[in-house]
Amino acid sequence: MTQKRSYHFETRAIHEGLKDSPWQGATLPPIFQTAAHYHETAESLSNTFAGKTEEHIYMRLSNPTSRFLEKKLASLESGAGAVVAGSGMAAINNACLTLLRTGDEFVASKTLFMSTYTLFNTIFRKYGITVKFVDPMSLDDIEAAINEKTRFVYMETITNPGMEVADIKAIANIAYSHGAPLIMDNTLASPWLCRPLELGADIVMHSTTKYLSGHGAAIGGVVVDAGKFDWTGEKFQDFAPFVEQKGNLAFLHRMFKEYHVNFGTAPAPFHSFLTAMGLNTLGIRMERHIANAVKAADFLKAQPKVEWVNFPGFPDHKSYTTAKEQFNNKGFGAMLTFGLKDQTTCFKFIDRLEMILNLANLGDCKTLIIHPYSSQYISFPEALKNQLADPKLLRLSLGIEHIDDILYDLEQALTAV
Ligand code: PLP
Q1: pLDDT tens-digit map of 13-62
Q2: What is the CATH number of domain 283-416?
Q3: Which residues pair with 368 in a beta bridge?
């Protein structure tokens, strides 16, 4: 059917790609549980290896269920193409390593998700790659850190657990003026709240494990390419063969051919199915997640036992203005951090919660809490641990339960400490 209307995000999250799929009217992609795909002729398999057709060869390369998800995610992030991966970390590795060589540098926010921080600060350094950590709120800091060796700038839309909102437009302009692409980890915002590619970023990645799949049932990642960066610039002469083959999609093509395929980062199709199913309700879930976060932030701020609340939705928060503008007045994300008296009080509080779950995830439909200092950051050196997560800090990821039940649980646990 010819599409006459340009549909809204929430509608595309449900319908994108469905009517193009030859799946006998199925309203969700079938789970193609097959390691490999046979071809009727030798020529067909040869053409597929040569990249001349969209057919499939082997699950480590591609799979129809995952391909359906890739197209949907590319559309929702306003990108030109996407490659899904087995986890968010696999997606980050794929995106960064496609751009990096020994001796290269890149610039990244100094407040990053813990595994991303370790990857950049420890693992990449082992291979002679230098990360320059910067304050994501300081454009001067970012500008000063970039030099001729900088291959990209990497930021999180909302930092985890710093709760800072980077000014994507301004950072993209700085990166662009130095001939470097901007990569945004958009996990905490989701494309419902923010679409970095529309603001000038070149590459977006997600841990789809979070809001995109939405139910805490699947793990996955995605890299979406805007297809706008000019890879013929001075810094990217090594991209020439890929530009020749795929033009502005050189990055995604190279990432797929060199890293996704050879590192073995493909997701299992069942996880792609669960994520595609989760996307159907992304819009409505985000509305509730975000509304609950505002109410929980206000509630916690009013509690005498709560020392501070870090939430970009407070007008006096350093990221309030950027978040309001960049997120089109749709909210401030659905995660917040807050401080209690000390680590012992944090532990007691967690132990008294009745419904809110103490676990290492976020962006689930369930409300989740964690004490990052004693869990995710436990093996970090003391100074770094303190820089990234205060011992008094609790991280709360608001789910979509009834707000009265969430506030009841927070209140009764606070009363008990
Ligand atoms: N990026 C952010 C902002 C995250 O919070 C996470 C995980 O919590 C990741 C990336 C990594 O994703 P995954 O756990 O799917 O590998």
Answers
A1: 999 999 888 899 999 999 999 999 999 999 999 999 998 999 999 999 99
A2: 3.90.1150.10
A3: 357, 397
Q: Write out pLDDT tens, residues 181-223.
A: 999 999 999 999 999 999 999 999 999 999 999 999 999 999 9
Cis before 161 (ω within 30): yes
Pocket test for ligand 1, best of 207, 335, 377 (most atoms within 8 A of CB): 207
Which helix (H) or strand (E) element contains residue 10? helix 9-15
| Domain range list for the chain | 9-279, 283-416
For the record, the structure tokens of 341 come out as 């008296």
pLDDT at residue 358 tops 60: yes
Model-level pTM greater than 0.85?
yes
Topology (CATH level 3) of domain 9-279: Aspartate Aminotransferase; domain 2 (3.40.640)
Structure token pair of residue 393: 């800090």
Q: How would you class 292 by CB atoms within 10 Å of its CB: exposed for 0-12, middle for 13-18, buried for 19 or more?
A: buried
End-to-end CA distance of the chain: 61
List the residue whose alpha carbon is closest to atom 14 of ligand 1. 88
Say whether 283-416 and 9-279 share the same fold.
no
State the distance from the centre of ligand 1 to the C-alpha of 189, rounded, in angstroms: 12
The protein residue whose alpha carbon is closest to atom 13 in ligand 1 is 88
